[in-house]
Amino acid sequence: MKLISFDYRGKSSYGAIKGDRIIDLGAHFGAALPDLKALIAANRLAEAAGIADAETAPAIALAAVTLLPVIPNPGKIVCVGLNYADHVQETGRTVTESPTLFLRVAESQVAHGDDIVLPAESSRLDYEGEIAIVIGQGGRRISEDDAWSHIAGYACYNDGSLRDWQSATPQWTAGKNFWRTGGFGPWMVTADEIAAGQVMTLVTRLNGVEMQRTTTDRLIHSIPRQIAFISTFTPLSPGDVIVTGTPGGVGAKRQPPVWMKPGDVVEVDVDAIGVLRNGVRTE
């Protein structure tokens, strides 16, 4: 099942995609489950799938809605850096024993089809194609053996980064959190459609030119390892997002560097999920 969050006629909702239509699950469940995070927290994805299959909830044309980031209101967005060997190598860093982490805030995200914003304070906007996981069942000190069962679904992510702000200090927070720089979408594919440990292919394209390509079997710290490590120091909650890392080929490390500019189109394509597409504009 492909689940999206959206605005329709001034009201936020969520639903399942059926061809060129959306089965409006938000309208069906009402105030009891007002958003996708609430549906996940209530452990009612299977019920939602039945409603979508039976088409017993209102349907809306997909073209009539404005998409939102998959989870518009995550409690946490935890990003894993330096998690593919070719990216570690191009940055001149070394592989760490534990995952390298940083946080993003919800306001730094945009939906599929929306524009990533290049702020006036920088000209060094870079792409980072990644795979995001959305937590279903929460928990603390989740074991690697149990980790797959804590995933609600998967989405594409573009961890757009302002490299000059990222490198201005030893901490990456500013460069990773400019307003509307991270793409999250186009939808969440529920975990029942992607097998535990299934190898996924990730490709990033800028204006149709392939810039990054990898497969998830090349992750330094696997998805179960990420979940186990993060949940050791903070409880994971339904709707939390983990962004699992970008491969080599980022614009900052090319010769000459390649920066995203207004009018560009960047795509993050994951074979098991779909294609996240964002334009680029100035603020």
Please sum up the structure shown.
The protein is α+β, with helices and mostly antiparallel strands and 283 residues long. The chain has helices at residues 25-29, 36-41, 45-54, 85-91, 163-166, 223-233; strands spanning 2-8, 11-18, 21-24, 59-61, 66-67, 77-81, 100-104, 109-110, 115-118, 125-126, 129-135, 151-159, 161-162, 182-190, 201-206, 209-215, 241-243, 265-270, 274-282. The strands form three sheets. Strands 1, 2, 3, 4, 5, 6, 7, 8, 11, 12, 14 and 17 form a twelve-stranded mixed β-sheet that branches. It has a five-stranded mixed β-sheet with strand order 9-19-18-15-16, with no helix packed on it.
Write the layout of secondary structure elements.
Layout lengths: L1 E7 L2 E8 L2 E4 H5 L6 H6 L3 H10 L4 E3 L4 E2 L9 E5 L3 H7 L8 E5 L4 E2 L4 E4 L6 E2 L2 E7 L15 E9 L1 E2 H4 L15 E9 L10 E6 L2 E7 L7 H11 L7 E3 L21 E6 L3 E9 L1
Parallel strand pairs: 6-17, 8-14, 9-19
Antiparallel strand pairs: 1-2, 1-5, 1-14, 2-3, 3-4, 6-7, 10-13, 11-12, 11-17, 12-14, 15-16, 15-18, 18-19
- Radius of gyration over C-alpha positions, nearest whole angstrom: 18 Å
Quick one: how many beta strands?
Answer: 19
Oligomer: single chain
Helical content stands at 10-25%
Largest sheet: 12 strands, mixed
* Average predicted local confidence, pLDDT: 97
- Give the uncertain stretches in residue-range form: none
General shape: globular
Structural class: alpha+beta
